[in-house]
Amino acid sequence: MTTAGKRTERSVEELRRSGWRGRLVVLGPAFVAAVAYVDPGNFATNFAAGAQYGYLLLWVIIVANLMAMLIQSLSAKLGLATGKNLPETCRERMPRTGNFLMWVQAELVAIATDLAEVVGGAIALNLLFGIPLFTGGLITGVIAFALLALQGRGHRPFERAIVALLAVILVGLVSTLFRVDVDPAAALAGLVPQFEGTDSLLLATGILGATVMPHVIYLHSALTQHRMTAQSPADRRFLLRTGRLDIVLGMGVAGLVNLSMLVIAAALFAGTAVPDTDTLSGIYAGLTVQLDQVAAIAFAVALLASGFASSGVGTYAGQVIMAGFLRRRIPLLARRLLTLIPALVVLGLGVDPTQALVLSQVVLSFGIPFALAPLVWFTAQRAIMGTLVNHRVTTVVAAVVTALVVALNAVLIVQTLAG
């Protein structure tokens, strides 16, 4: 065993024996993944749901969050069990042509992801400072590049920066949540699964269908694969339990943020004549009218943090995708430009930013089955996972969730393309 291997073994064992302090050291990957669940697309969808139907669809956000926890736990476990991320496992287990096609669709997913994040950051900068959208897109891209540069110092600085931005999003929205008059009875009623006509069903489909982001499924397995190496069954159990805690906390924060968005919109916009609450700029204006400028600024700052953080995470995922499927790496600046240029072209052409967000979600929807199906299959194989193979019940539930998400995204695609 190498000296490096001995250091890793002692480190894991030491952390395992140090109780909660050891667990805190291992936390982090799920908080990076959680950023994908509070990206600018979620801002628009959740506020629109609350504005149109009040608290009716609160239960949808909770179900979506539980689905996210399950899927991200499978991705994290794959990296922990195999020492390989999902794209690398696909390259090993799939024919060359199939692997190449997987890479092509995954790259399109990465580009669509960055489009949504850059547009969201640009809108936030425009709302806060009046910066033109194209210039705001450039600024968002530069900030994301700076975040990725932190990786050169190890995983911790990058994770801390992302967690700090996630905290800004959380504080910005929760602080407003405490200022609005929530109807407790209506909120409790919103926890019971129900719909009000076809339109509410379609909106619920949009929330559920857009919950799972394919790029972060690829990424989460990479965040755990080399983080620490388990040298014993006890080490492996420790890392698995701590990873589950990480996911519960990270996805829990994302769920709280999403719930806050819907509740704020339900309390302030439902049943009112406030216009354009299905757009980010309309939400900003509506918060100013219904509450005050402070609430609007808090929303815009949270949106800005979301754009910065999710753009950085999306570009990181792009690196993982190319390195995993093709075993190729390109300079970080080139990687940043590859995904940034399409977003800048869209902004430069003057395309409606909200429409650009919608179209990016359609592209992401196409990529979901290509990430989910291999993940469920691989984690159900003992030859791949060893002792961390899925329990049969876990595999069945994951397969059902996969089928549901794919079906919902198919409906979402048809709905969007049909106008």
From TrEMBL:
Transmembrane helix among the record's keywords? yes
Q: Which InterPro entries match?
A: NRAMP_fam (IPR001046)
Q: Tell me the Pfam families matching this sequence.
A: Nramp
Entry membrane topology: Multi-pass membrane protein
The keyword Repressor is annotated on this UniProt entry: no
Signal peptide (from-to): none
Show the stretches that span the lipid bilayer: 20-38, 58-80, 100-123, 129-150, 162-180, 200-219, 247-274, 294-321, 333-351, 357-380, 392-414
Superkingdom in the source lineage: Bacteria
- Which compartments does it reside in? Cell membrane; Membrane
Picking any one GO molecular function of the record gives:
manganese ion transmembrane transporter activity
Q: Which UniProt keywords apply?
A: Cell membrane, Ion transport, Membrane, Symport, Transmembrane, Transmembrane helix, Transport
One GO cellular component from the entry?
Answer: plasma membrane
**In its UniProt record, which GO terms are filed under biological process?**
iron ion transmembrane transport
Which coarse location class applies to the principal site listed for this UniProt protein?
membrane
Tell me the function of this protein: H(+)-stimulated, divalent metal cation uptake system.
Q: Which family does it belong to?
A: Belongs to the NRAMP family.
Q: What is the protein's name according to its record?
A: Divalent metal cation transporter MntH
Q: Source species, please? A: Pseudonocardia sediminis
